[in-house]
TrEMBL record:
Domain FAD-binding PCMH-type: 80-254
InterPro entries listed in its UniProt record: BBE (IPR012951), FAD-bd_PCMH (IPR016166), FAD-bd_PCMH-like_sf (IPR036318), FAD-bd_PCMH_sub1 (IPR016167), FAD-bd_PCMH_sub2 (IPR016169), Oxid_FAD_bind_N (IPR006094)
UniProt xrefs under PROSITE patterns: FAD_PCMH
Provenance organism: Rhodamnia argentea
PANTHER family on file: OS08G0158400 PROTEIN
Keyword Nucleotide-binding: yes
Keywords from the UniProt entry: Cell wall, Disulfide bond, FAD, Flavoprotein, Glycoprotein, Nucleotide-binding, Oxidoreductase, Secreted, Signal
Any Pfam family hit: FAD_binding_4
Signal peptide: 1-28
Subcellular location: Secreted, Cell wall
Protein name: Berberine bridge enzyme-like 19
Keyword Repeat part of the UniProt annotation: no
Cofactor(s) annotated in UniProt: FAD
Length: 538
């Protein structure tokens, strides 16, 4: 029998055990994960890569601040939301390569975040142990106005992109989303649509080239990655295939003056007639005219104590107000648009107007460079409408919305350029045959789990009420309106069957091609998430 260890070392052991018990296990795990990551990161980069100051451990006093700066949905800012072991904030492409290889070496899940606007927070939340690769420092934008193109890094925002284009030209723009703080990395790789989609299609219909880091840590441009992978990252979601470093985009012409307006009608002002007719006009009218509808239950101003539904028509027209009125007088007189409702602006001013400044004077254009964001608690869902909803059904829907009380709908008309592009041209399949997309929307500002349960139930109930009015087999959805209700994967042995469920809804017949590309470029499924493209079984 061996003698007991010396008294001092026994004491040391006891002290260690006591200390370990006091430390939370995740905290201790984080420290070692940080050390291991940093060691690998240093090994996988050159001294000239300047790696100091870009990796944040959980113990770092800036960790929480860096994490929350791009959380755009407060549902995922609670103390119970899983936190990453490490946040990496690359300032060079070589850092991205090293981060991919080190996550692979250490077998830790890597989450990719650009602007953080994912509605389900999947760019910065995971049930597994995970690192975050946060792209916000990689935000350069290089506009070539002679060539009518631009290179834009993934961590840039749409507002920055629009601003940099407008610095060089007042007759160029780019068709992408209407919220300036949305990130290029998630938005463009997921499709990207905005108020010029009827004229120019989606963002991905206007992309020329890209640079990505693949699962082997290689930097590939379009030529090196090949047309299949290039196709996949233009609407199939970047996060299943690699890290998007940058896209080269094609700028589009915009007139010197565009026209915007907002017109509102409630049910007593025949809003139902307007919506009914809108379904026939908005998807077929002049492609330069984008008339979005916002539908929301509100308290009636005319009938005391009554609830009603308010319809707001929010519009961009690529032309002047006389041309616009000639169209709306003829095609949609139910709207009652008058010259005094119309505001003529430069395109870049219209971007600001759409980005939350549609009442009162416009702020300085530099507002588009701001990354400030007043986050809310929220949930979104999406649907596609392929045949007009009857007046009786619209009235029934309004009644249900008023009963529920808080869920709003947004109708975004398609048609125009959207109907000309084949469904297989990009992974985004919702083209000809779709009249408009519905977004279901609910926001709240209280940190209250009971309320959250109630609000999530409300939006799901409204989604169930509309079943008969929307696309079927599958009931389609828009990837950028991330919704984990429509199916998820645990990336285990059933990932293909699980992926078919949500993948069929987001990508319809394009799902199979995405699976083939995925299987070819990332067979070990390094780039995965709750709704990623699976590899083929076996
Ligand atoms: C306020 C608001 C307004 C919106 N308006 C519009 C709109 O007008 N039109 C529209 O189409 N959509 C809109 N969206 C949805 C938006 O396009 C998507 O949420 C988009 O994915 C956000 O991109 P992000 O980089 O900001 O998000 P992130 O949360 O950073 O990323 C979203 C997804 O992309 C992945 N990803 C991020 N960066 C990379 C990268 N560099 N390489 C590979 N994968 C990456 C993430 O892992 C995640 O899966 C809006 C969202 C919000 C919150
Ligand atoms: C926190 O991490 C950052 C990034 O690596 C580093 O620059 C900073 O010095 C760290 N702060 C502390 C207090 O350790
Ligand atoms: C997110 O949570 C942290 C910690 O509770 C809190 O300090 C912070 O204010 C929250 N962020 C927002 C935008 O509410
Ligand atoms: C609503 O429509 C009815 C019937 O077409 C019409 O008589 C009425 O004037 C309209 N009301 C408004 C406010 O336009
Ligand atoms: C939720 O908030 C967003 C912006 O923060 C707004 O555009 C949208 O209309 C709101 N939706 C509802 C239903 O209030």
């Amino acid at each position: 029998m061996k003698p007991f260890a010396s008294l001092p070392s026994l004491f040391a052991l006891l002290l260690f055990v006591l200390l370990s018990l006091r430390l939370s296990p995740s905290c201790a795990a984080s420290d070692s994960a940080y050390d291991a990551f940093l060691q690998c990161f240093t090994r996988r980069t050159q001294p000239s890569d300047h790696v100091s100051g870009i990796v944040y451990s959980r113990d770092n006093s800036s960790f929480a601040g860096v994490l929350v700066s791009y959380i755009r949905n407060l549902r995922f800012n609670s103390s119970s939301t899983p936190k990453p072991l490490v946040i990496v904030t690359p300032t060079r492409e070589s850092h991205v390569q090293a981060a991919v290889l080190c996550s692979k070496d250490l077998g830790v899940h890597l989450k990719l975040r650009s602007g953080g606007h994912d509605y389900e927070g999947i760019s910065y939340v995971s049930e597994d142990d995970f690192f975050i690769l946060d792209m916000f420092n990689l935000r350069s934008i290089d506009v070539d106005i002679q060539g009518e193109t631009a290179w834009v890094q993934a961590g840039a925002t749409l507002g920055e992109l629009y601003y940099r284009i407008s610095e060089k030209s007042n007759v160029h723009g780019f068709p992408a989303g209407v919220c300036g703080t949305v990130g290029v990395g998630g938005h463009l790789s997921g499709g990207g649509y905005g108020n010029m989609l009827r004229k120019y299609g989606l963002s991905v219909d206007n992309i020329i080239d890209a640079r990505i880091v693949d699962a082997e840590g290689r930097i590939l441009d379009r030529k090196a990655m090949g047309e299949d992978l290039f196709w996949a990252i233009n609407g199939g979601g970047g996060a299943s295939f690699g890290v998007i470093l940058a896209y080269q985009i094609k700028l589009v012409p915009v007139p010197e003056k565009v026209t915007v307006f907002r017109v509102e009608k409630t049910l007593d002002q025949n809003a139902t007639d307007l919506v009914y007719k809108w379904q026939f006009v908005a998807p077929t009218t002049d492609p330069g005219l984008f008339m979005r509808l916002l539908l929301q239950p509100v308290t009636s101003k005319t009938q005391k104590g009554q609830k009603t539904l308010r319809v707001s028509v929010v519009t961009l027209f690529l032309g002047n107000s006389d041309q616009l009125l000639a169209i709306t007088d003829k095609e949609l007189p139910e709207m009652g648009l008058k010259k005094e409702n119309c505001i003529e602006l430069s395109w870049i001013e219209s971007v600001l107007w759409w980005d939350g400044f549609d009442s009162g004077p416009l702020p300085a254009l530099e507002t588009l460079l701001s990354r400030d964001y007043a986050a809310n608690y929220l949930k979104r869902k999406s649907d596609y409408v392929q045949t007009p909803i009857s007046k009786a059904n619209l009235d029934w829907l309004w009644k249900k919305m008023i009963e529920l009380g808080k869920v709003g709908l947004v109708f975004n008309p398609y048609g125009g350029r959207m109907s000309e592009i084949p469904a297989s041209a990009t992974p985004f399949p919702h083209r000809a045959g779709n009249l408009y997309k519905i977004q279901y929307s609910i926001n709240w500002s209280e940190d209250d789990p009971e309320l959250e349960k109630n609000y999530l139930a409300q939006i799901r109930r409204l989604y169930s009420y509309t079943t008969a009015f929307v696309s079927k087999n599958p009931r389609s959805a828009f990837l950028n309106y991330r919704d984990l209700d429509i199916g998820t994967t645990t990336n285990g042995k059933n990932s293909y069957e699980e992926g078919e469920v949500y993948g069929g809804k987001y990508f319809n017949d394009n799902f199979q091609r995405l699976v083939k590309v995925k299987t070819a470029v990332d067979p070990s499924d390094f780039f995965r998430n709750e709704q990623s493209i699976p590899t083929l079984p076996n």
